[in-house]
Amino acid sequence: MHGDSVMSGDRKRGTIWSMLGEAKRNGGSVEDALNTLMYAESPIFAKAGFRVVKLGEGYAEISFPMSEEIRRRGGMVHGGIIMYVLDSVCGLAVISRNQGVDQFTVELKVNFLEQLHKPPFKAVGRIVRMGGRLAVAEGEVADADGKVCAKALGTWYIVKEDTKEHR
Fold it and tell me: Would you say 138 and 117 are in contact if contact means Cβ atoms under 8 Å apart?
């Protein structure tokens, strides 16, 4: 989620939890509210059919189906889509603990282990270390049989305050 601007609509409220807290108070789920935000802010998230199924403290999970929009020659998911879902799911894990106003992906390394072609797919992201300005997260994408097809390790920069340079 390069630029992870899930919080862009209301930066003064703090964490994603405070922003989505209203959804919970109104009887909705944090995941449903987050999916609504992600679909509005990131058309490719919606086009790829990504769906946040779980968001916890330092943890996130996204599921997605196979579709023509994400398929490449050979009937497998395109590597760029795999990188995008790993960036997204790890970024969501980080944003779940982010006390700042935003975050940005600094680097993301992905190892492609197997072809990804048996849906539905599941991506999981977890925080490895949360520092003051940097967070490290890891993620993986698995197929319907639970076979891990790609692994990632990345770093996110935590933006502490909203400045003109940040916008």
Answer: no
